[in-house]
Automatic annotation (TrEMBL):
<keyword id="KW-0067">ATP-binding</keyword>
<dbReference type="InterPro" id="IPR024109">
    <property type="entry name" value="Trp-tRNA-ligase_bac-type"/>
</dbReference>
<feature type="short sequence motif" description="'HIGH' region">
    <location>
        <begin position="10"/>
        <end position="18"/>
    </location>
</feature>
<keyword id="KW-0436">Ligase</keyword>
<dbReference type="InterPro" id="IPR001412">
    <property type="entry name" value="aa-tRNA-synth_I_CS"/>
</dbReference>
<dbReference type="Pfam" id="PF00579">
    <property type="entry name" value="tRNA-synt_1b"/>
</dbReference>
<feature type="binding site">
    <location>
        <position position="183"/>
    </location>
    <ligand>
        <name>ATP</name>
    </ligand>
</feature>
<comment type="subunit">
    <text>Homodimer.</text>
</comment>
<dbReference type="InterPro" id="IPR002306">
    <property type="entry name" value="Trp-tRNA-ligase"/>
</dbReference>
<dbReference type="InterPro" id="IPR002305">
    <property type="entry name" value="aa-tRNA-synth_Ic"/>
</dbReference>
<keyword id="KW-0648">Protein biosynthesis</keyword>
<dbReference type="GO" id="GO:0004830">
    <property type="term" value="F:tryptophan-tRNA ligase activity"/>
</dbReference>
<protein>
    <recommendedName>
        <fullName>Tryptophan--tRNA ligase</fullName>
        <ecNumber>6.1.1.2</ecNumber>
    </recommendedName>
</protein>
<dbReference type="InterPro" id="IPR014729">
    <property type="entry name" value="Rossmann-like_a/b/a_fold"/>
</dbReference>
<dbReference type="GO" id="GO:0005829">
    <property type="term" value="C:cytosol"/>
</dbReference>
<dbReference type="GO" id="GO:0006436">
    <property type="term" value="P:tryptophanyl-tRNA aminoacylation"/>
</dbReference>
<feature type="binding site">
    <location>
        <begin position="9"/>
        <end position="11"/>
    </location>
    <ligand>
        <name>ATP</name>
    </ligand>
</feature>
Amino acid sequence: MKRVFSGVQPSGNLTIGNYLGAIKQFVEMQNEANALYCVVDLHAITVPQDPAELRKRSREIAQLYLACGVDPDKATVFIQSHVKEHAELGWLLQCASYMGELNRMTQYKDKSEGKQSVQVGLYTYPVLMAADILLYDTTHVPVGDDQKQHIELTRDIATRFNGRFGDTFVLPEPHIQEFGARIMALDEPTKKMSKSAENEGSRIAILEDPAVFKKKIMRAVTDTENEIRFDEDNKPGVSNLLTIYSLFAGVGVDELVARYQGQGYGNLKKDLVEVMTDQLGTIQKRYSELSDPAELDKILAASAERARTIAEQTVNRVKDAMGLVRL
Ligand code: TYM
């Protein structure tokens, strides 16, 4: 059976980029696979975090997974630091990874650029991510386009490890959608929408008030042509809006282009706001209904227990392979 693993960092308010690129796929894949969805708090601390804020956000992300439709009876929803094997395998794999390959990681280059001091954890971040994935014999990893390089590294580490120590890890495949793998910023549609970008107007949070996101959509950068056409190179703004619309409405981009022939951008934007208000409204309503912290903690504890059973076996296998004594 397929085994699916993915994670989201509790490092900001999740955006519609996180939803359309990743979480929406989590919901679809939980029906056809044994799925584990993690809140990767150990990854979030690779950059400075406010402790109280981090604690609050980690629970919020789990709550948001559920509000978006992840079903805890079908999928295992847990917090990374609750399963200590993530850190343990992370270390074991650091001893089987090379600085040369980490130096090539573009996310590290972007996040460390211009900084005077950079935490070691930010550099070894992709190895911890490899540990997350390999711990569960994962076959498929639903992610946005920006995580592709990390999954390729995971495969490289696993292949090398298997070659050196014998068959230990399953090789995972990235699961990246054709549309929506990279939702772009509303103010600068040649850049990825990011939960940590400075300009609030560049992104829409999943939990954002419709009146607020309406303004952002209406102000979203397009072009002066006033022709609705999907062309990412020449019309990145309009193409981005079409992609977002298509994913929220469940209607193909071609069909939307046909539907809006001869109409201006204003109509497209207005209708998009309506579709988003409806879809995000459902998520927001469910989110507020799930606000009992004791209930959430119960789900997280039971899920962590399930995850631990698998993770322990993998770590034991790795320790045996590497020659560590087990009693
Ligand atoms: P993170 O927290 O940055 O993002 C979570 C997920 O959202 C996707 N995503 C997007 N997809 C489309 N358009 C966008 N604008 C957009 N922005 C974000 C990301 O690709 C990701 O799938 N390193 C990971 C977290 C992680 C992980 C893992 C993922 C840690 N361990 C193991 C998969 C498997 C990250 O920083 O995601």
